[in-house]
Structures are given as C-alpha cells and as structure tokens.
Design a protein that fits this description.
By secondary structure, this protein is mainly alpha-helical. The protein has two domains: 96 residues, no CATH class; 135 residues, no CATH class. Helix content is 69%, strand content 0%. It is built from nine helices and no strands. Helix 5 runs antiparallel to helix 6, helix 7 crosses helix 8 and helix 7 packs parallel to helix 9. The structure holds zinc ion. Zinc ion (ZN) binds next to loops. Zinc ion binds next to loops.
Length: 258
C-alpha cells in the first residue's frame, strides 16, 4: 500500500509540477492561471499537448520552442522533477494518514513559492492565502476523519506561535524579514504544529540555520555582497519540509525525546 501511494504521488507530482510552472510564470505577472492555455512567451504559439508532457517534451525539444527556437529554461523540467520527488517523499511518509492531501498541497505550494521568491523576492498573497485556507480545511477534515482534534488545535496554535515569532523579528528588522515571510510562517507553523511542538521549533530553527549558512556562503564566495537581499522564503520552506519528513527521527535522537 505504501509503495502504491508513493508511486501514484510521483506520477501525479510530475503533472502537478507542470502546472506549477504555469503558476510560477503567471502569478507574479498578475495573469490568470486558468486562461489562456499555455503559450510560448517568445512567439505566442500555443503549446500542443505533445509538447506539454512533463520533462519528456523538454528533452525531445532539447530545451527549445518547436515554433521559434526560443530556449525553454531548464527550470521547467527541474520544477517537474522536483515536484515529483517531493510528492514521492510526502506520499511515502503520509501513506497511511488522512493528512496526506494537506501535506501534498503544502509541498507543491512551497516549491512554487520558493522559485517565485528566488526570482522576484516576493511571496504572493495569491498563493499564501489560499494555501493557509487549504491547510485549515484539509487538516480540519483529517482531524475529523481520524479523531485528532488535539492535533488540529496544536496546529492552529503552532501557526499563531510561528506567526508571532517572525512578526517580532519583522518589527525589529523590517529589511531582514519581510512581512511575506511572517504570513508564510503561519502556514508553516500550522503544518508543523499538526505533527508536534518539537517539529515547530525544529522547522523554524532549520529555516534560520539554512538561511544563515547559505547567506554566509554566498558572501564568502562573493556571489552576493552583504548589502544584497537574499530571499528567506526558500530556506523557511526547506526547513519546514525537512522537519515534516525527518522531524520525528531527528527529535528522537535528542536526549529524553519529546
Ligand atoms: Zn516560441
């Protein structure tokens, strides 16, 4: 059963990754994500279904538009593969849990938000608000299905705690911590809180740790200067996903456990 769920999630994840590419391109440009159908940003030609197969089409076309030859960034197949991998890991982890749909939605949304934040230094409300709503509804439904009211209450409290923690940092240093990060923190705390308070702390800690580590590495290697803005969303997202998948294992190494 676990193997079946994992494989199904990988296959679905490829298709969802293809949709995320549309979201990543259109949402920061304030375009609709449902209409018009996919077209080449170079020549406006509609992309036929055979050229829209995840990963495979990009390889067949060798990364160029069939009509005008405009390069198709490698980001497209990478997002599709990335989504398939994330969904596979989440499927494997939550194969026997009613919370599976909630965590699949989270993983897809965090991937899209991370790519958008890296390119535009922005965490669009058009993704963060629906994600918060979907998290509350899907985790609420999971709580009803498996009689886990206490997990749901802890999830909401975890969201509020994470929001409050980053809000304080935002007020201390508005340039260092954008309000977009504060709003995202509610969602991250919500999903981490469903699992436990240890996961809330671990996820946020890993986010800050990864951000500091890579921020320093970028400055040391002169890829960024101290004054450059480094988006924080992708690190928060990565820390949360690591804590969701490996949190219970990491926390059980800690003396006395939870
Ligand atoms: Zn084209």
């Amino acid at each position: 059963m676990q193997l079946f769920v994992t494989v199904a999630c990988v296959v679905l994840g490829l298709a969802v990754g293809s949709f995320l590419n549309v979201v990543i391109w259109r949402v920061p440009r304030h375009e609709s994500i449902v209409a018009p159908p996919s077209h080449c940003p170079g020549c406006d030609a509609l992309i036929s279904p055979r050229d829209n197969v995840p990963v495979f089409s990009w390889l067949v076309l060798r990364g160029r538009c069939r009509n005008c030859g405009e390069p198709i960034p490698i980001r497209y197949p990478m997002v599709e593969v990335g989504c398939a991998l994330l969904w596979g890991v989440i499927g494997y982890t939550f194969a026997d849990s009613w919370a599976l749909p909630a965590y699949l939605v989270l993983a897809a949304a965090l991937l899209a938000l991370s790519v958008i934040d890296l390119e535009h230094y922005l965490l669009p409300n058009r993704i963060v608000y629906p994600l918060a709503g979907a998290g509350l509804v899907l985790l609420g439904a999971a709580a009803l299905a498996q009689g886990a009211g206490d997990s749901f209450v802890r999830a909401v409290l975890g969201g509020l705690a994470a929001f409050g923690m980053l809000l304080v940092l935002h007020l201390v240093s508005p340039r260092g911590m954008g309000f977009g990060d504060v709003k995202l923190a509610f969602v991250l705390g919500l999903y981490l809180g469903w699992l436990g308070w240890g996961e809330v702390l671990l996820g946020l800690f890993l986010g800050f740790f990864l951000g500091a580590l890579i921020g320093v590495a970028l400055i040391v290697t002169h890829l960024r200067s101290r004054k450059d803005h480094v988006p924080f969303g992708p690190f928060l997202a990565a820390g949360t996903l690591i804590a969701i998948v490996w949190g219970p294992a990491i926390l059980s190494w800690y003396p006395q456990g939870r």
